[in-house]
Description:
Chain A has helices at about 20-35, 60-65, 85-95, 140-155, 160-175, 185-190, 220-225, 255-270, 285-295, 305-310, 330-335, 340-355, and strands spanning about 5-10, 45-50, 75, 100-110, 195, 200, 210-220, 235-240, 280, 370-375, 380-385. With about 400 residues, chain A is α/β, with parallel strands linked by helices. Chain A has one domain (about 5-115, about 205-385): Thiolase/Chalcone synthase (Peroxisomal Thiolase, Chain A, domain 1, 3-Layer(aba) Sandwich). In chain B, β3 and β4 form a beta hairpin. The longest helix of chain B is centred in the first third of the chain and has 7 residues, at about 1-10.
Amino acid sequence: MQNVYVLGTGMIKFGRYPTKTVPELGGEAAILALKDAGVGIKDVEMFACGNLYQSNAMVGQRILQQIGQTGIPVVNVSNACATGSTAFREAFLAIASGMYEVTMAVGVEQMGKAGLLGGGGGAGGDPAYATEGRLGSGLMPAVFGQAGIEHMRKYGTKMEHFAKISVKSHQHATKNPFSQYRNEVTLDDVLNARMISYPNTLYMCCPTGDGAAAAILVSENKLKQLAGGRKRPRVAAAILTSDPWTDRTASLPDVSTLTRRASKQAYAAAGLGPKDIALTELHDCFATAELVHYENLGLCGDGEAGAFIDSGGGKHPGLGGHDPVNVSGGLLSKGHPLGATGVANICEVVWHLTQDERAKDRQVPNAKAGQAHVIGLGSACTIHVLTI
Amino acid sequence: MAEQAQAADSGPRPIVPFLKLQPKPHLMGSKCGNCGLVLLDTSRVACSRCGATEGFKPLALSDKGKVYVFSVVHQSFPGIKTPYITAIVDLPEGVSVRSNIIGIDAEDAQKNPKQLFDLPVEMITNVVAKDREGHDVVAFAFKPSKK
């Protein structure tokens, strides 16, 4: 395998763009990344595009129809919430394999105000056989609510611990101009907000929205030609796993085992441990998810997530915290346009490693390594470790 | 042919294939002949755990179990009454099933979540809808077992 570097990144502010199309949103992010990299679309040899809601509609090719139809191979990727990060990994593999030297990954999604995600449909299209709400709930707030309750059951975790994560993420988001929401919330605001699915209240659930992010990846050879002396992060680990068999996984997706296996592989591939990681962007689709992933990613020991939070764990060092997690605001505040999320997380990590001005008000000091973790329920897990 | 006979029947229908209504309502699993794993399916291509393709046997599952974890759903699809308790129930055969829990106040479950952990429960069935052909559609749920 040859080394792979991120030469450029681009992202549009997550939010709602009802008057734009998916190829326009993706195209805008791609152009930003190309400009940041200092290359043009004619330099790109392969393109992996992540999108979920139009996964049968050749989104990658339609983006090239917006920004330059050069005839390169396009792979359209769909992998639930891990769609964007899986596309990034495809662009990584294309170079790592030695086949290409310059590739592009774009993640893009337009969700509008789509409501609750997941849940069972009716067999044969007859709604009388729909199982959602009749045989329990497959909706995401309930699935991840149960993941939090499992932690509560094992370790006596309190509602306040989950709520503190939401307070922290909202505080982080005030410093991120790319974030969909930039308002602070208090612990009381979070605890007293409308309950969606216990223990997740409204502010412990990520919003729906639109967005796009892109990255240009290059080989070491091309880095020397194109970087112009700029130091660019190396992709030190690009891990993708699916859900292994565990006892209850058929009825309750086991996001913890999924993440732990990926994390072990990621640290091994990068030759690093949790203490070497300056910042983590992890998949906080719900506050309950973030809490369990502190342990799953080794940021603290098993059963210690509550104490980790109470000691400032996960909070930006500039706010008196340590082991910063989701300094972008995370999915909870920055937003979670499904296909865009995995590429946006990588953009955030890159911006801290390169002291990019797009992260200037929230720079994590002395960042030499960072990780981006994404889960797609069903299930997929990606972890990318970047180093500089 | 048994399936065709059932199709001609005008009686109630289970909401999912692994719910059997006769002779009395019960859940049906498949047991792997190689590793013994029980899966909540009436037919299998191969085993999720060991990959064996042969030797699956149907296994009628117990109607009694214990609650592992739960959530209280406050926002759902139109027509679904909220709040309600959704839970993962562990059955003695080593298989878990997702189900509504009835007979416990949902708000009270949130105030005192510990009461649900390992709570012994038993299965009941209820008619939840009528399908396009006029059959009653039967679902299952679990309620606290009588002491």
